[in-house]
């Protein structure tokens, strides 16, 4: 392992097999945390490669708990985070809109590490219990077509790595790997990354990991979502093809809005934004969710175009279906809490 660490310190890229070895080393309980931290920092300084990301994702996925979901076409829209732009929880909001439009959602997420409010933080502010069992997760997914997988619950080996990441306080390769390690088998995915120059490589990672259809986006200023603030960079994975393209909000029938218009706050503030939005209150927050949910519906294959997806997302909200998905998940969570109290 010493040779691999030196190679990274010298800013040399690792072969796939070398990164498999390094990933196993990081997940060993006796590996010093300081060494993990310096290795992650060195990887970030040299710039991670598609093979390094794919190898780490493969090892991390192998350590995940099994989530025995029934056969189906499941989708995750978790992004990498780490863009530092302090937007509200776009992908978590979109998950309810997508579920309301008929997509089977298994949203992977975590608490804040390099943001003001992570996916799990805002879910708890909404009244959703994130620390539920695998059996309850599968039951909720079957009943409502949406479930949230809290990363520490399904990746018990991540505990020590999480401590290292919090100590570093900045994005690492684990931000890139997070969306790739959903324990539910995914044939389709829509994910955002905070590195516009890595979109093609990230799409190739999704292809390596067996996604039949998927979409990667990086928005203006490196936002890990599609944005109303200008041109968004995409690569569509369609079986064997990697298709790059760009899209502006106007292309999808929406209007420009600056990044400042979708700033978020803490978990409670973001939960309030989500509730208003899902109740149909129109704003830049609302249109940003329409854009991303529209792309998600196109990625899933329900919509023929992103513009058609935007209209379907609008219908999911205005019909009340998206809001009902939120209420159903909250109700399920409250029921679990009541049973725990009685026991």
TrEMBL record:
RNA-binding keyword on record: no
Stretches of the chain forming a coiled coil according to its record: none
Cofactors demanded by this protein: Mg(2+)
InterPro entries hit by this protein: Anthranilate_Pribosyl_Tfrase, Glycosyl_Trfase_fam3, Glycosyl_Trfase_fam3_N_dom, Glycosyl_Trfase_fam3_N_dom_sf, Nuc_phospho_transferase
Residue positions binding 5-phospho-alpha-D-ribose 1-diphosphate: 79, 82-83, 87, 89-92, 107-115, 119
Residue positions binding Mg(2+) 1: 91, 225
Residues that, per the record, bind anthranilate 2: 165
Pfam families: Glycos_trans_3N, Glycos_transf_3
SUPFAM superfamilies reported for this sequence: Nucleoside phosphorylase/phosphoribosyltransferase catalytic domain, Nucleoside phosphorylase/phosphoribosyltransferase N-terminal domain
EC number(s) on file: 2.4.2.18
Keywords of this entry: Amino-acid biosynthesis, Aromatic amino acid biosynthesis, Glycosyltransferase, Magnesium, Metal-binding, Transferase, Tryptophan biosynthesis
Class of this enzyme: transferase
Keyword Acyltransferase: no
Recorded catalytic activity of this chain's protein: N-(5-phospho-beta-D-ribosyl)anthranilate + diphosphate = 5-phospho-alpha-D-ribose 1-diphosphate + anthranilate
Top-rank taxon: Bacteria
This protein's pathway: Amino-acid biosynthesis; L-tryptophan biosynthesis; L-tryptophan from chorismate: step 2/5
GO molecular function: anthranilate phosphoribosyltransferase activity
Ranges of residues in domain Glycosyl transferase family: 74-322
Purpose of the protein: Catalyzes the transfer of the phosphoribosyl group of 5-phosphorylribose-1-pyrophosphate (PRPP) to anthranilate to yield N-(5'-phosphoribosyl)-anthranilate (PRA).
Family: Belongs to the anthranilate phosphoribosyltransferase family.
Protein name, as recorded: Anthranilate phosphoribosyltransferase
Organism name: Lysinibacillus agricola
Gene designation: trpD
